[in-house]
Design goal:
The protein has 1016 residues and is mainly β. The protein has 6 helices and 61 strands. The strands form 13 sheets. It has a 21-stranded mixed β-sheet that branches. The protein has a 7-stranded antiparallel β-sheet with strand order 36-38-34-46-45-42-43. Strands 56, 57, 59, 60 and 61 form a 5-stranded antiparallel β-sheet that branches. A hairpin with a 4-residue loop joins strand 52 and strand 53.
Length: 1016
C-alpha cells in the first residue's frame, strides 16, 4: 500500500497518495537510451457540496414494478465543475457513506468529454424512505485507489431521479432488485490500470416509451456513419414508428407497436434482430457491415429467445461468438472501432421478465477490474412529460456478482444477456496500427501508417490488439513489448518457427518524422525462434535522447527497405508499437579541486557551474530560454569538514549553489579536497566550467578558482568568457601535467581524490602518457590537449559502468604566500549516465479560476493545485489564447475587455529538470453587479412641499434605470427613476424622517443617510 499525506486548506482536505511501483527487468534486445524507474504519486482533493458532484434518490417507475424512495442512489459527476473546484482535469471519484465505500474509482476526465458521468450505488436503507441529505466523504484523486477510508463528511443535498429504463421484451420488469452492494469491487494491488476511450459518445437521443432496443441500434449506426462513413439514409433525431427518422424506421422494421411517444411496447431479441437486418437490407446496407453477437439460449422461443448460434435474416448473418457475454469480447469489439449494444434482464432466473438495451461506447480496467460505460435515456418519455430529460452516460464495473456465470452490471439481478456489434466492411477486419500522433507521424489509415493483418503468430509482448484505424494518441491497449527504456529491452513472442525482423525508428531531432539520417536506428534485426530474444544494439548518438521523443517498433515477416514508419501496403503479419520517451542520456562531469582555505574565518563555499552550446556562449541566469542553462548540482563534499554532506541551495536561480557547513567557526585547513558533481539539466550541452570560491558571511574572499572542460570530450579544455559575478574573465587558464586513466566503475565522489591510493593506482597503471604542458586557454576559447588519449587504452565512458579520469594541476592566481600564484592539483571524472525523466515526477499543470465577485470582467487564476517535482517551478499564463504567455505567477488575474468566454492556458515549467506541463480551460468574464452608490441633494422645504434630487450612480447600470424608493415618514412611499426630482406634499406640518433607497436592475440596493425635515 502507499502512504497518504494530508493537509487542510481552509475547509478542503488535499492529500497526496504515494505509491512506489516495482521495476521489472527482462533481458531482451537492448538499445542504450533510458532506464525506467517509476514512482507514481496520487494527488487527492476533498470535494464539497456544489463542487461538481450531485446526488439523487431513484424512483423506479416501471409499468409492473414501481419502487418509490428506493435504496438506489444516483451520483452525477460534472467534469467541468469538478475540474474547476479541484484543479484536476481528470481523475477518479471515490465516495464513502454510512453504507461504506459506495462509489469506487469512478473515472472522470474533462479531456475526454464535458458530459456528466453517472453511476448508481446503495444508500444503505433498510426500507424505502425519502432521503434529502446524504452524509458523505467525497474525494477526487489523480490516480485510482486500492482502498478508500472515511474522512471529514459533508451533507450533500439529495434530489429525486426517476427511472423507467425498460423496453427489451414484451413482458415488463417485475423485479427491480437490490442496489449495488457497497465495496463491490476488490481491486488488485499492482493490477493493470488501462483506460481505453476508443469511441466517443455521438448522438444519444431521447427515447420514446419502451424504445430502448431500436434506439441503441440507432445510436450505433449513427456512430458508424460519423466515424467510418456508413451511408445511413435517415436522420438520427427524435422519432417514432412511421416517420422518416432512423429510430422510427427501425421501429417499423421491427414491427414495434407504438401509437404515440408516450405509449408503446417493448421488443425482444428475435424481432429486433430481424427488424435491424430488414432495415439494413431495405436501405442498401446489407453488404456494408459485419455482425457478431454473444449470448445464447436465454428466454423462450420464438420471439423471446436469444439466437442459438448464427442468426440469419434478410440475407444478413450475425456470427455467434460465444454462449455468454464477456467483458473481453465487448472491449475487444470497441477496441477495433466497432459499435456495441448490450441487453440486460432484470431477473434472477432464466425466465424473461423484461430488460433494457443500451449502446456501450467505452471500456477499460481500473487496477485490474473491468468496466464499461454506456449511453441511454433512463426516462423514456412515458415518465418524461417534457421529452427532454434522462439522457446519461453510466459507468459500471462488470462482474458476476451472484455467481451464476453471467456478467452483472450495477444490481445483482441485472444480468447482461446479449451483446451485438457491427463493423464496416470497408477495411480488413483485423488490423494493428501504431498510435503516434498523426499526421505528424504516419499512423492512421489515411496517412498510410504501418499496419498489420492477423492472425497473431508473432508480435511484441504478450498480446496484440486490432482496430479499424489508429487510436490517437498513445492509447493502444497491448503496447506491451517494451520492458525498459535504457537499455531499451523488449520481448518478442515468436512461436512461428520462422525468423522475424525488428525495425526501430527514433525521431532524434524531434522534427515530426523518422526520415532523417540515423533515425532508422535498428534495421531488420533478425529475431530467432524464441519468446524472449537476446541481443544488443547501441545507437550512434553521442549525447542524448531529447525530451518527448517518439519511437516506433515494428516486427514483420519480411525485411524492410527505406522504412520511415509507413508502408505501401498492409504488412502481412506482425505488430507495430509506438512509445514516447520523456528523458535523455547525458554526460556528467565530477570536478575535484585540491584548494587552500586561505582565510581562517571563511565559513561557506560558493559553487557555480555554467554550461553552453558552443560556439554561441550566451551567458546569464536571467536567460532561461536561451542557449545557456544551469546544471543540476548532485552532491558536494569536502575533506576539510565532518559535515561533508551538509549543503543547501540558498540561491535557486541560475547556477548558484552555496555549500553551507553550518557554522561560523569551522576548522581551518591549509589544503583540502573539494568535490562536486554537475550534470546538464535541459539540453545536450557542449562545454562546462565549475567555479569555486570561499565566502565569509556571504561575502566573497579570495579569487575564483575554475576548471573548464568539454562535455563530450576528455581531451578539450575550455576557458569561459565571463565569471559568475557577471564580469569579463581576464585570466588565462593554465593547466599542466595532464594524464588520463580509465576506471572500471564510477569512483564515489568523496573518494575521488589524489590522496586516495586506489585513484593513484589507476593513474600508475595507465599507459596514457603525462602531458607536461603547460596548456594555456584564453577566455572564451577551447583547446585540444595533445596527444589525445588512445581510445584503445582510454575508451569512452559507459553508462552505469566505466568512467574516464583526468588529473593535472591548474594555476590559481594569488593564493600562495605573499599573493603568489600556485599550482593546485585536480582530478576530473567523466561519467556517462542515463537520466530517465519517467523516474522523476513531472510537473502537473492544474488551476482553478473564478470570476471576480467585486470587479467587473476580472477573472482570478490559481495554480496552487499544480504539482512541481523539484520544487522549483515557474507558472506562466496565456490569458488571451494568442499563443503568448502574458503573465506569470502561481496566482494571477486578468481583466477582459468584454463579457464572454476565454481560453486560458497555464504552463508549469520545472526549472530543475526542464520539464513542462500545460493545461487549458475556458473561463468566463462576467459583468459583476455591484451595489449602487446612493446619494441625493439636501431636501428643499417650501411650506408643505419637500423636494430633493436623486444623484445616485451605479457601475453597471445607467442612472435612469435605477429605482429610487422614498419613504417620506408620514406613511407615504413613492417609487421613481434614478436621477429625477423626488417630491412630496405633506398633509400637515411636523417633523418627518426621509429614508432614501436605491435599487439597481440586479436587485442590489443601498440607502443614503436618513434626513429629518420640518414642514409648517
Amino acid at each position: 500500500m502507499g502512504k497518504m499525506i494530508s493537509e487542510k486548506r481552509g475547509s478542503r482536505i488535499v492529500s497526496y497518495h504515494h505509491t512506489h511501483l516495482r521495476l521489472k527487468i527482462c533481458v531482451a534486445i537492448a538499445i542504450a537510451l533510458l532506464l525506467t524507474t517509476y514512482a507514481a504519486s496520487a494527488f487527492a482533493v476533498t470535494v464539497l457540496p456544489m463542487e461538481g458532484v450531485e446526488f439523487e434518490q431513484v424512483d423506479f417507475l416501471f409499468e409492473q414494478a414501481t419502487v418509490l424512495n428506493s435504496d438506489w442512489g444516483r451520483v452525477s459527476a460534472n467534469p467541468e465543475e469538478l475540474s474547476h473546484s479541484t484543479g484536476l482535469s481528470s481523475g477518479y471519484l471515490n465516495i464513502y457513506t454510512n453504507a461504506g465505500w459506495v462509489v469506487q474509482n469512478l473515472p472522470v476526465d474533462l479531456n475526454i468529454s464535458s458530459y456528466p458521468v453517472t453511476t448508481y450505488f446503495t444508500l444503505g436503507l433498510a426500507a424505502p424512505e425519502n432521503v434529502s441529505l446524504l452524509s458523505a466523504y467525497v474525494e477526487f484523486t489523480s490516480k485510482p485507489q486500492h482502498i478508500f477510508a472515511d474522512g471529514l463528511r459533508s451533507d450533500f443535498p439529495v434530489g429525486d431521479a426517476g427511472c423507467n429504463a425498460e423496453g427489451a421484451g414484451e413482458s415488463h420488469v417485475t423485479e427491480v432488485g437490490a442496489a449495488p452492494p457497497a465495496n463491490l469491487v476488490e481491486f488488485i494491488l499492482d493490477g493493470p490500470n488501462t483506460t481505453m476511450r476508443y469511441t466517443q459518445p455521438n448522438q444519444n437521443v431521447q427515447a420514446a416509451a419502451n424504445q430502448c432496443f431500436p434506439m441503441s441500434i440507432a445510436n450505433s449506426l449513427q456512430y458508424l456513419e460519423n466515424n467510418f462513413g456508413l451511408n445511413v439514409p435517415h436522420n438520427h433525431i427524435l422519432g417514432l414508428r412511421g416517420d422518416n427518422t432512423l429510430v422510427g424506421q427501425l421501429d417499423l422494421a421491427a414491427n414495434r407497436w407504438a401509437p404515440s411517444r408516450f405509449f408503446g411496447s417493448g421488443v425482444w431479441f428475435t424481432p429486433m434482430l430481424q427488424g435491424k437486418f430488414r432495415y439494413l437490407a431495405n436501405n442498401g446496407l446489407a453488404n456494408s457491415l459485419i455482425h457478431r453477437h454473444q449470448g445464447r439460449g436465454y428466454g423462450s422461443p420464438p420471439n423471446q429467445a436469444l439466437p442459438n448460434g448464427n442468426f440469419t435474416s434478410s440475407g444478413i448473418t450475425s456470427i455467434d461468438n460465444g454462449a455468454v457475454v464477456t467483458w473481453r469480447w465487448i472491449c475487444d469489439q470497441i477496441g477495433k472501432g466497432e459499435d456495441v449494444e448490450i441487453v440486460w434482464s432484470y431477473d434472477w432466473g432464466n425466465t424473461p421478465t423484461g430488460g433494457h438495451a443500451v449502446r456501450v461506447f467505452d471500456c477499460g480496467t481500473t487496477l485490474g477490474r473491468p468496466w464499461i460505460r454506456f449511453l441511454h435515456d433512463r426516462l423514456q418519455t412515458n415518465q418524461d412529460p417534457t421529452d427532454s430529460l434522462g439522457l446519461e452516460q453510466v459507468f459500471t464495473y462488470t462482474q458476476d456478482i451472484d455467481g451464476d456465470g453471467t456478467l452483472n452490471i450495477l444490481g445483482r439481478n441485472w444480468e447482461i444477456r446479449f451483446a451485438l456489434s457491427e463493423s464496416i466492411k470497408l477495411r480488413p477486419e483485423l488490423l494493428d496500427f501504431g498510435d503516434a500522433p498523426d499526421p505528424t507521424y504516419p499512423s492512421r489509415w489515411i496517412s498510410n501508417g504501418a499496419r498489420h493483418t492477423g492472425p497473431k503468430d508473432f508480435y511484441f509482448g504478450k498480446d496484440v490488439d486490432y482496430e479499424a484505424d489508429s487510436r490517437q494518441v498513445n492509447i493502444d491497449l497491448f503496447d506491451d513489448g517494451l520492458i525498459s527504456r535504457f537499455p531499451i529491452t523488449f520481448r518478442v513472442t515468436n512461436p512461428s518457427g520462422l525468423v522475424r525482423y525488428v525495425n526501430i525508428l527514433i525521431d532524434w531531432n524531434q522534427d515530426g518524422d523518422w526520415a532523417d539520417p540515423g533515425e532508422w536506428a535498428l534495421q531488420n534485426f533478425s529475431v530467432p525462434i524464441l519468446t524472449v530474444t537476446p541481443g544488443i544494439y547501441t545507437p550512434n548518438q553521442a549525447l542524448s535522447l531529447p525530451n518527448n521523443t517518439w519511437m516506433r517498433m515494428t516486427i514483420t515477416n519480411i525485411q524492410l527497405i527505406n522504412y520511415v514508419g509507413s508502408w505501401p501496403s498492409v504488412f502481412d503479419r506482425g505488430e507495430t508499437e509506438d512509445y514516447i520517451f520523456h528523458g535523455k542520456k547525458v554526460n556528467k562531469h565530477a570536478y575535484h579541486f585540491k584548494v587552500h582555505q586561505f582565510n581562517p574565518l571563511a565559513n561557506n563555499a560558493v559553487i557555480w557551474s555554467s554550461v553552453w552550446n558552443w560556439p554561441w556562449g550566451l551567458w546569464g541566469p536571467w536567460w532561461p530560454w536561451g542557449i545557456w542553462n544551469a546544471p543540476v548540482l548532485q552532491s558536494a563534499w569536502s575533506s576539510c569538514f565532518s559535515e561533508w554532506n551538509a549543503w543547501t541551495w540558498t540561491w535557486p536561480w541560475g547556477g548558484w549553489r552555496v555549500v553551507n557547513f553550518w557554522g561560523r567557526d569551522i576548522p581551518y585547513c591549509t589544503s583540502c579536497w573539494f568535490n562536486v558533481d554537475f550534470r546538464s539539466s535541459i539540453r545536450p550541452l557542449t562545454v562546462s566550467s565549475a567555479f569555486f570560491r570561499w565566502t565569509l558571511n556571504n561575502n566573497f574572499v579570495g579569487p575564483w578558482i575554475w576548471l573548464g572542460w568539454k562535455f563530450t570530450s576528455p581531451h578539450t579544455l575550455y576557458n569561459p568568457e565571463m565569471l559568475p559575478d557577471d564580469t569579463l574573465n581576464t585570466h588565462t587558464m593554465t593547466v599542466r601535467d595532464i594524464q588520463f586513466a580509465s576506471s572500471p566503475a564510477r569512483i564515489p565522489n568523496e573518494e575521488t581524490t589524489l590522496d586516495n591510493p586506489a585513484v593513484l593506482d589507476l593513474f600508475a597503471a595507465s599507459s596514457d602518457p603525462v602531458r607536461p604542458g603547460s596548456f594555456t586557454v584564453l577566455p572564451g576559447h577551447e583547446l585540444q590537449i595533445t596527444p589525445e588519449p588512445d581510445p584503445n587504452t582510454i575508451p569512452d565512458p559507459e553508462i552505469e559502468g566505466r568512467t574516464v579520469l583526468a588529473k593535472g594541476e591548474i594555476l590559481v592566481p594569488g593564493v600562495g604566500e605573499g599573493g603568489a600564484d600556485e599550482w593546485m592539483p585536480f582530478v576530473l571524472q567523466f561519467i556517462a549516465e542515463s537520466w530517465d525523466l519517467s523516474a522523476i515526477t513531472p510537473p502537473v499543470a492544474s488551476f482553478s479560476w473564478g470570476s471576480d465577485t467585486t470587479t467587473t470582467l476580472k477573472v482570478n487564476f490559481n495554480a496552487s493545485l499544480s504539482t512541481c517535482g523539484s520544487g522549483d517551478c515557474t507558472y506562466d499564463w496565456d490569458v488571451t489564447s494568442n499563443g503568448t504567455y502574458d503573465i506569470a505567477g502561481i496566482t494571477q488575474s486578468n481583466t477582459y475587455g468584454a463579457a464572454g468566454y476565454y481560453d486560458v492556458t497555464l504552463r508549469v515549467t520545472d526549472n530543475t529538470y526542464g520539464l513542462t506541463a500545460t493545461t487549458k480551460k475556458t473561463v468566463q468574464a462576467k459583468v459583476i453587479n455591484t451595489p449602487p452608490n446612493a446619494a441625493k441633494t439636501a431636501p428643499a422645504v417650501a411650506g408643505l412641499l419637500v423636494t430633493y434630487t436623486d444623484t445616485s450612480s451605479d457601475a453597471e447600470d445607467a442612472q435612469a434605470s435605477l429605482k429610487v424608493t422614498t419613504t417620506w415618514g408620514d406613511g407615504v412611499t413613492t417609487v421613481n427613476a434614478g436621477g429625477t426630482l423626488q417630491s412630496h406634499t405633506y398633509l400637515r406640518g411636523g417633523i418627518y424622517t426621509i429614508r432614501h433607497k436605491v435599487t439597481d436592475t440586479g436587485g442590489l440596493y443601498k440607502f443614503s443617510s436618513n434626513v429629518t425635515v420640518t414642514v409648517r
